[in-house]
Amino acid sequence: xxxxxxxxxxxxSAPQPTLAIEATGLAKSFGExxxxxxxxxxVRRGSVYGVLGPNGAGKTTTIRMLATLLRPDAGSARxxxxxxxxxxxxxxxxxxxxxxxxxxxxxxxxxxxLILLGRLLxxxxxxxxxxxxxxxxxxxxxxxxxxxxxxxxxxxxxxLDIAASLVVTPQLMFLDEPTSGLDPRSRNQVWDIIRxxxxxGTTILLCTQYLDEADQLxxxxxxxxxxxxxxxxxxxxxxxxxxxxxLHVRLLHPDQRPAAERVxxxxxxxxxxxxxxxxxxxSCADADRAAGALAELSRSGVGIADFSVGQPSLDExxxxxxxxxxDEQTAEEAIADNQEQAA
Amino acid sequence: xxxxxxxxxxxxxxxxxxxxxxxxxxxxRPPPASAASxxxxxxxxxxxxxxHVPEQLLDVTITPVMFVLMFTYLFGGAIAGSxxxxxxxxxxxxxxxxxxxxxxxxxxxLNTDLTKGVVDRFRTLPIWRPAPLxxxxxxxxxxxxxxxxxxxxxxxxxxxxxxxxxxxxLAALALVVVFAFGLSWVFTTMGLLLRSPNxxxxxxxxxxxxxTFLSNVxxxxxxxxxxxxxxxxxxxxxILATASRGLMEGTADAGDIAVxxxxxxxxxxxxxxxxxxxxxTRS
Lengths: 343, 283
Fold this sequence. Notes:
The structure holds two protein chains of two kinds. Chain A is an alpha/beta fold. Chain A has 13 helices and 14 strands. Chain A has a six-stranded mixed sheet, sandwiched between helices. The longest helix of chain A has 16 residues, at 184-199.
């Protein structure tokens, strides 16, 4: 530990037991690009903490520093009470990482992957076999157990990847974009697993660029952009900070959207057209007025496929915080992202 | 969104709920594997890959066969007067060459491994740091043994009759494998410094090829120009070839063997920590 840390953690014998991750001013550059530029994080034990941001925002670099894979250029971080640089081995003994590119060995079978990790983590020969079978059963991989991982589907690979992180129960799990590239069904399966994990008390740091994923799973969220935390709070707080909620409507027929837009703007005010050609939304915090507007829509013959009234989505939060949608990537970020991927 | 009624939360249960619970229930964390056990486990990983893709043994079996046949029948008569006599001279040399060429693949394999996400997982495990590398090289040593055995068996078929019998042959094979283990650390370092598996392959062969040909593997250095002869005499590969011949013929010089073992030790002492450091810090 660096001498300057002494002041921050005065009673050395009593590290703060409630925090699983404590990071101050973490920074990392790749050449000219500041991938992470002074990130502070405080993650409670037993919670799911979402780190949310577009590609190249610095999420993966942050997670790699916390998981002891990258040495920070500046700042410090303690994971479960241990410094990630000075005490990296202690951290490694308590965490596990499910990386962005699947962290399993493609040239081995699913079962062999689990046995390999079990042995490395010190399980005895018999115990490791039992544990591998248990995990394969729990994650729906029994039939694929003896197939090479390179022949797995994306969803199976992800499930194996998470199972591999759980061969020995970690106190903290890093999940880097666990559902990117998965179809909705596989994504739901992974979400179910994450929820079950949380129910067992595992702390999870979840990096994601899917706003609904953070909304669904996380207790706390840090929104990160250009290597900096630009907002932090519960999903509810973040949404509240952006202002009123909205009525989202999806129509049965996209060609009725102009008609629906006229009705809604008359009833509630300025209407936003969504990328989905059948969807539109309008700012509205009052459920009664929303109900009135919906009734007006059906009176005027517009077919409604579904609707929801809610707080603003995290997409809107991101737009409000950064002034641009989350999925827009600047050229500079694309470069940072590539370097992050290569790293 | 959570409020969107079109998104069912449980379209198909991922898995058997009870089995999932069981799989997730806390397991106590044993002390991590010891250094030796972690390295052996990584060696096992290397063996599994051979099991799944046995074709990868082709390069360590076919190439040596080609070398033996080519050198014996193409050059044997011209160099030593008869193919039979040349076989006695060249077989231990080809053994050395084939096994050393195989060491380049250790660097290539490591470089390939690095492009895969699984290395991140290995690096976050609380294990002896060099274990993935030592283990991989232990696995590779089995490949070296295979390459060496193919040469020796082929030699026996073609009429090679070593004076020192089985014991001498095994001793020579062991010496070559030990030296190869040391040398392969040079290529694993290369594997971590260079960008692509192809670059490692090229740089590896560009260094091992001249080193092998500028040795006494193929010809007696006495016919060489003085400067070249001086180089050939101190080339560790020459000393290894001489020691292997000695062991097979029962005339081994303890000094040669000591030089070979010391070279292997020095290569390991310098390049193993370097490889380990690069493996841990490469980002």
